[in-house]
Design a protein that fits this description.
The chain is mostly helical. It has 12 helices and 2 strands.
């Protein structure tokens, strides 16, 4: 039994705990900063009562969710009604395990990898787990036995399945460059000059992936599954207390993970300019983690900025964009990348 408690297992356990706490903390305070961003753009103040500058507002919201009355509709499927938000939350938390959060940490004479699982199909794992999240939404909407919840769940499943196709195809072009499905390899292939970042080689692929990320996270202008003007609250209409909190919280976790994946795929991940000039290993690790999180925070702000700038699509416009615009563009991007790589190899000879 003692052989199971290896230093590597201890490192991974600590890293899992830290990632779990950081993810929950960023998701919680994303709700605060979203309100502040909205208030700034609308010339308001935003949360300012709970603590200095309203900084304790996420804790107040969490306490409210925990202590609110638990309401479960009589006509609902009790087991599935509970299972829906649980699946959605768990799948949101699972996606961060393959993301490399920084350079290896040299400590206590050992090398600690700041990545929980460096599997050789890392990007496929992300897509696979994200696609499972739709089951939580669909189960929750169906189990509610409410027509608005069911319509919201059908919208969400149709939307996520449709935009996953274009999102997956947009990543294929990057895999053609790097030759690996590992998130670590994709990030390492962008080391060195800032010109090595995939955003310069794949601007069209980045644009497609970014738009699809908005749709996958149910963010404005693609928040049709919970469109309050038509569906009351969408798939979580009948939910209250912490089960509603799990649905809402998981969306912010998805936004955080999406920002991390975008940063790793297109903006060098933890790489930063003049990285080779840093000789101190500990300082290099700290700066690499700070570099990745600065990119993540920028994209989280971008998600919020778009929400309070652009109105939502009609549902027919949303589906038309996914199938008739983004999907053909993603296929065209693959052909363009293949042609470029073939020409590049031909000119070498």
């Amino acid at each position: 039994m003692l052989e199971l408690f290896t230093p590597e297992l201890l490192d991974k356990s600590i890293l899992i705990l830290v990632l779990f706490l950081v993810t929950l903390g960023i998701a919680a305070y994303s709700t605060y900063f979203e309100r502040k961003v909205a208030a700034f753009m609308q010339d308001r103040i935003g949360p300012d009562r709970a603590g200095p500058f309203g900084i304790l507002q996420p804790l107040a919201d969490g306490g409210k969710m925990f202590f609110k009355e638990e309401i479960m509709p009589n006509a609902s499927d009790k087991l599935l009604f509970i299972l829906g938000p649980s699946i959605f939350m768990v799948t949101s938390l699972m996606t961060g395990v393959v993301i490399p959060w920084g350079k290896d940490l040299e400590m206590f004479g050992r090398t600690i990898t700041l990545q929980i699982a460096d599997i050789n199909i890392g990007i496929l794992y992300v897509f696979g787990v994200v696609s499972l999240g739709v089951y939580g939404i669909m189960i929750g909407g169906w189990a509610s036995n409410n027509k608005y919840a069911l319509l919201g769940a059908v919208r969400a499943s149709s939307q996520m399945i449709s935009y996953e196709l274009a999102m997956g195809l947009s990543v294929v072009a990057i895999l053609m460059f790097t030759g690996s499905l590992s998130m670590k390899d994709i990030v390492e292939s962008q080391s060195g000059s800032i010109l090595n970042w995939n955003i310069f080689a794949q601007p069209l692929g980045f644009l497609i992936f970014l738009i699809c990320a908005f749709a996958e996270c149910n963010r404005t202008p693609f928040d049709l599954p919970e469109c309050e003007s038509e569906l009351v609250g969408g798939y979580h209409t009948e939910y209250s207390s912490m089960k509603l909190g799990l649905f809402l919280f998981a969306e912010y976790i998805n936004m955080f993970i999406s920002s991390a994946v975008i940063s790793c795929l297109y903006f060098g991940g933890y790489n930063f300019p003049f990285m080779d000039m840093v000789s101190n290993p500990l300082l290099l690790t700290v700066l690499s983690v700070a570099s990745l999180f600065s990119k993540i925070f920028f994209f989280i702000f971008f998600f919020m900025w778009i929400r309070w700038t652009i109105p939502r699509f009609r549902y027919d416009q949303l589906m038309r964009l996914g199938w008739q615009v983004l999907l053909p563009l993603a296929i065209f991007n693959i052909l363009l990348t293949g042609g470029f790589m073939t020409l590049k190899d031909y000119l070498k000879f």
